[in-house]
Amino acid sequence: MEDRKEHWEKVFATKAETEVSWFQIYPKTSVEFLELFKLPLDANIIDVGGGDSYFVDALLEKGYKNIYILDISANAIERAKKRLGSNATKVNWIVSDITDFEPTVKFDFWHDRAAFHFLTSEDKVYKYVSIAENSINPNGYLILGTFSEQGPTKCSGLEIKQYNETSMSVCFEVKFERIKCITEDHTTPFNTIQNFLFCSFKKR
């Protein structure tokens, strides 16, 4: 079986952005969470599994200066760089599996839409939580979007782990306080509906 990195390199090498289910031209929910916390423009912001998502465009447009985009796929990041043109130099790009990530800075805002739910084993989930706990500043924010229990059980041919408010909160309860959770129906480019759960947390 191919490994996760191979899988994602192939996806981003062979499919156009509108041929993947998670595509959205404007990440409305993510931006609303960002605006809720009124972060200073020099805040350290990371988008985990950010790939070629348009969240980075929104961050640049708002004037944020310390943006980090992490993705397991170099192809995804190359696509985002190409789209952004000269603006790509304003972003710190990281090609890494999140469970191998060793950050060099602490983050004020950690955003993840649809990467966490691909971690289906307990040890990978634990590793992710541990990295987030160590990488987010006290009073920093964590925003997680995963498929809800009403959402799909697979994505891009891979098994995922569904979450509800309780199961997600339990993962992060040691170091984080939950702020609020919402569910959202995402309409894919193929006109199917995927139900997402988004939860926000504050580091104690």
How is this structure best described in words?
The protein has 204 residues and is of the alpha/beta class. The chain has a single domain, classed as Rossmann fold (3-Layer(aba) Sandwich). Helix content is 29%, strand content 30%. It has six helices and nine strands, in the order ααβαβαββαβββαββ. It has helices at residues 4-14, 28-36, 55-61, 74-84, 122-135, 165-172, and strands at 44-48, 66-71, 91-95, 107-113, 136-147, 154-155, 158-159, 176-187, 193-203. The protein has a seven-stranded mixed beta sheet, sandwiched between helices. β1 (44-48), α3 and β2 (66-71) form a beta-alpha-beta unit. α1 runs parallel beside α4 (74-84). The longest helix has 14 residues, at 122-135. The termini are far apart.
Which labels suit this protein?
single chain, 204 residues, alpha/beta, Rossmann fold, seven-stranded mixed sheet, two-stranded antiparallel sheet, 29% helix, 30% strand, globular
